[in-house]
Structure formats: structure tokens, C-alpha cells
Amino acid sequence: MPRTRDEALRWIDHGHPKLSVRRQCQLLGVQRSQLYYEPVPETAENLDLMQRIDKQYLQTPFWGSRNMTTFLHQQGFAVNRKRTQRLMRIMGLKGLAPGPSTSRPAPHHPIYPYLLRDVVINRPNQVWSSDVTYIPMRHGYLYLVAVMDWFSRYVLSWRLSNSMDVEFCVAALDEALDQGTPEIFNTDQGAQFTSRQYTDRLKSSAIEISMDGRGRALDNVFIERLWRSVKYEDIYLKHYESGADCQKGLTRYFKFYSHERPHQSLGNRTPWAVHTSQRRGAKVPT
């Protein structure tokens, strides 16, 4: 048996064919939160490249690995396209790098149609959405998942993890569902969101499931805007050292974002004010 907590955390096998991560943590005597908040280590050079890719992706989400490699060359980095593809896959950038991708469904998972084309969003709890994004840190990286109400932009829940597994996505979903039930729930086609564990949660609450078209990041435009705000207003400024620091910092940020920060698109009101005060069918002031 491992002698220290850090050693025990290194024993965890996210791909174990028989033991879930939860069961492995139980057997090793560690809390899952300790596991998920440990940043994934990476070289300083790769972390620099990944942060540059991350910032550029927020500006040009339609770029593939070819354009991103050209961009890195212009920044003075002698990287080949294969390396760019590998880094983009680690970051979970949707459908932009050929080959395996964390935003592609598992072969046996069903895909649901996109239900929101030309739909007028005019009330809270009409549409919720969820997505996962890469969080750069000083010595590694984590992943962040959030659940957002489209009408009010209110962030109902969020979780951090160092793995793109389904468990932290389901945990965020469960917390959101404790606060209400949407009519439609929209995600991309990532394996986390197409899994039975995730979709069964939605079906059991009679929620319609909508999924973005493959490679169409802008189908989930409101949560993509959230990622831009989170990163430029917090993550890129703070350069968090540890997962615990990141957890505390994002707790403060999401409170600010939802309860204190006025949004121009919401008539300079906060997401929380709109989420709790709008009657069914009411329109956001312009």
C-alpha cells in the first residue's frame, strides 16, 4: 500500500477496466476531491503553448490544428502539426484536431439532434447548457465544467477535475437539478455528455436532450462566452498554483459573475436577478 497521500493519488488508474475512480479512492483511503484538484503536470514549454492556443481558440473557435500551428509559428515556436494536435486533444478543443478527441462521443453512445435552431429563448429554465473547458495553471492544468441557464446566464453549478471523466460532469448536473428543471438541456457531443450515466439523469427528469452539431462550438454560444469571461477576468490574471487555490478563486469569481457583475445583454442586471425575477414568457430588457 502507498505510504503517503501523494503516492496514493499516483496509484489511481482512470482507465481501470473493473474499478471506478470512486472505488479506487475508497480502497486507497483518499478523498476524490483531493484527486480531482491535483493539477495534471506538464512541461513549462507545453503549458506556454497550451495557454497561447487557449487564448487564440477563444478568438477563433473555427480554427483547426493547421491554422493553430501556423499561428504558433508566427509567435516564434518551431512546433509541428502533430504536436499541436496532441495539445489540442489534451485541452478538449471540440472536433478541431483529427483522431481521438475528448469532445467526441464514444462509439456506442447515442447522439441527439440539436433542438435550438431558430428557437426564441424567453424565460428562465427553458434551456440549460453544459460544457467543459481547459483551465491553465502555473504548473499544470485542470478541467472545468459548468451548467448555465441560457436566458439569465446564471451559472447554476460548476466542478473542477483533472480528468475528463463523466463523474464530475454528473456531479455538476445533480447540483443544478437540485435548483430546478429545464425544458431542454444542451451540450456538445463529448463522451461525458452522451454517456448513459449522464443522459439517463436528464431522461429521468423528462428533460429534452439537445446536442450541438459536430464541430459547431457556436451552437453553445452562451457558455462559450462564459469561458471567455472566466479566463480573461480570473484564470489568466491569477495563474493559480494549486487546485485548492483554483477552487477558492473560482468560488469567488462565480459568485461575482452571477450575483454582482452587471451584464449589458441583461439590461445591466445580474444573472441572479434575471433568473429569479423574470416571469414565464417575459423578455429581457434591451
From TrEMBL:
Transmembrane segments: none annotated. Residues 263-286 are annotated as: Disordered. Residues 120-279 form the Integrase catalytic domain. SUPFAM superfamilies: Ribonuclease H-like. Pfam families: HTH_21 (PF13276), rve (PF00665). Gene3D superfamilies: Ribonuclease H-like superfamily/Ribonuclease H (3.30.420.10). Residues 277-286 have a biased composition (Basic residues). GO terms for molecular function: nucleic acid binding. GO terms for biological process: DNA integration. NCBIfam families: transpos_IS3. This is Integrase core domain protein. The lineage of its organism: Bacteria, Pseudomonadati, Planctomycetota, Planctomycetia, Pirellulales.
